[in-house]
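Section 5.1 Outputs to date
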Amino acid sequence: MNQSQAVNRAAVLSAGNGGITFAAHLLDQGVEWVSLYNRSPFRLEPIQSNGDRIYARGKIGGDKGRQMQLALVTGDPVEAIEGVDFIVMAGTQPAIDHLGQALAPHIGRDQVIMIGSGTLGSTWEMQACLRAGGCQELPIVGEFNILPYAAKLDNEMQGRVWVRGIKNTLDAAFSPPERLTSAFLDWLLGIYPYLNIRPDVLYTGLSGANMVIHPVVVLRNRDKVRAGKPWALYAEGVTPEVGALMDQVDQERMAVAAACNLDLIPIYQFLINAYPPFDGAQPTNTYEWFRSRMRSSSGQVHLEAVPGPSSFNVRLLEEDVPYGMVPLEGLGRLLGVPTPTVSMFIDETQELLGEDYRLSGRTVDKMLDEVKISLSKMEVQLDGE
């Protein structure tokens, strides 16, 4: 990266809703050259047929919407990152392994790669995959704790997004943080003025709400999923009993965080900050927060409209269990913190989907060196070391 100026060239890896929104936001904020990569041609073809332009409306692009010109649209991730300062990995968690190994021989030490929506261990896994792929000098790797945007396809068309919101509660962390320049940080905070830079990715990884919420609501509504009829994920799926189980998972998450010398707030308080309750409600637990965000007295709809799945093969299980609960359980085991409720939901998911996520998922053993570096920075002493 040019040490004296902000980012001028960026690459976005993934042309899903999040990726298109990242690309549009970077262009909207004055980044001169933005490339877009996607592995599947079906997402790229509509953009290429539109002259390599994407479209955004709402919080980005304005009410009338705006076409934005990309510099490069490609199915080759190596081509996408050549000569860029800033790389956003905006795809799903399983893409980290593929992209890390593909980019390893080509990525530069002074580039910054940012995982657009991290889960526990995203940065660790990216670093481990880059090393496994032959990268000799790792780039700076960072992650947001959540996707910075609320966005969906515009008129169900690829390459077009309706950006309904930009989060005003957002955390990020980097490894190694000491290599970040003040110019880069100033640029990043200019784009995300509410961003909190945390000292280590343990903080962002353990702050994630998805692993606390999604597996529980799906696994405790199996009959609704199997019925194959339309149902409301949160309006019908989150009962007081389901909410209590979410709080139980959250207590185990917070116990692991405390063992890492982190004082994190409960997930329901994080959700209150990210999505303030309607009509002045004051939730005291996760269930009450869900009820507070269904529909406001003025008719504003949020969680009431979220549909439930008709299959168990969804990211709510296939991503949030192996890339959220599995590393949480593994970190707890490494630290001597029991996580019986988390383990129960991992067991249930494995039986349901016929997968051994403790083998194929994001296990602590696969990235142990990176985990130990974070723990040492947080002054966590492991037994026998």
